[in-house]
Design goal:
Layout lengths: L1 H24 L6 H10 L18 H14 L8 H13 L2 H12 L5 E4 L15 E5 L2 E9 L9 E7 L10 E7 L5 E6 L8 E12 L10 H16 L37 H7 L2 H7 L4 H10 L6 H29 L7 H24 L10 H11 L4 H10 L10 H12 L22
Parallel strand pairs: 1-4
Antiparallel strand pairs: 2-3, 3-7, 4-5, 6-7
Helix pairs in contact: 1-3, 4-5, 4-6, 6-11, 9-10, 9-11, 10-11, 11-13, 11-14
Amino acid sequence: MTDTATDLTGTDELLSDLRAWLIANWDPDLTVGEWWERLGLAGWAAPGLPTSAYGKAMARADAVLVQQEISAFGALGAPAGLGLLLAAPTIATHGTQEQVDLYVRDIVTGRRAWCQLFSEPQAGSDLAGLQTRAVKDGDEWVVNGQKVWTSGGQYADLGMLLARTDPEVPKHQGISYFAFTMLQDGVEVRPLKEMTGHALFNEVFITDARVADSALIGGVNNGWAAANTTLMNERAGLGSGGGNAAGGGVGAQPGTVLGHLARRVGDAVPPREQGARAAKRSKGSGGALRALGGGAALLINQARVRGVDTDPGIRQDLARLYTLGELGRMNGLRLKAVKEQGGDIPGMPNVAKLSMSQIVRLTRDLGLRILGPAGMLHAYGDDDKDALKHASGDPFAGGITEMALFAQAPPIYGGTDQVQRNIIGERVLGLPKEPNNDRVTPFSQLPKNA
């Protein structure tokens, strides 16, 4: 009990410091860029990063509390996206201090947006089978290849690029990790429209594009280690209890492409009472939000509105959905406690990712059962969405059907459920791997898909 009390006291002090900082620094008349500069350089944009990388070395659970507190205060949250979630922790781990100052500073202040250039048409689950090539040319590398499922590629300034720099060694050993400039000749981004109506993912075609040798993260042919750091952060962030990506900047996006940095920051947050009064009112609200059970709250409310909250099957699955969310949150707290003692829980990011897959599938099935016949209606464009809301009188139904359509993606991206189970089986439980010679045969000698 003493350890728990001490931990709660430390968390309260942390949030108290944050509230005092927000009272002193939040100004809705700043630009988005000016506000993110303050937030990022003070360490509050990415508090989970090391202090040498513009963070505060906080546990993931505390970093999530920080973002919730910023939102509850009424200020704009940290610049959302893959830069904060994936690139920054990878560069902080494998990059030089010069690279941290060059790249991570622009991430935490929202100056640059990032995408992830990993998967290829013939290299998804078997990521180490990637064929995009980077060939050294003086102080630069010339890159050719194709990437796919690139989230946010059409808005990115930079990409986390995996490319093969030595095909004459086993496939895991000849890969390098680059901070790759997207806004250059030779880079073509083609959006992939999904059945939700959105185009979150893209194809990226790279033809004789260039990247500086100084942009190598972790050194030449050491990209697989950096890639695993990225993937572990992705799985932890996407997993249940992981906070689901960074920040809360719904009204503004980082980077130079969308042009949000020059906007008035007060216009990028929902209209509400801001400043010190909001800080007083929000004290302790993070716990209340968490008590709603995350994604279960919307469906619980919808079940009540539609009069199906007394259906025994729906009630049981709502309780199950809430329980899965709480288990994810508690696993995050377990991991925090173990790491504070200098330990770790092997496989926890993979377990969290599998749990999130289970949550989204249950949310899909349960949401459509609650909607009933209305679940067959979905709008794909903004005008159609407005018309459907007006016709149905339900502003939430479209969000539920969109979640149902999107639910097929999370069990695939970030590493499929099958990949997560293989990792847990081989690396955590010590089960034997499937026999193959991929790790000893030069990549150039391995059979390739047509």
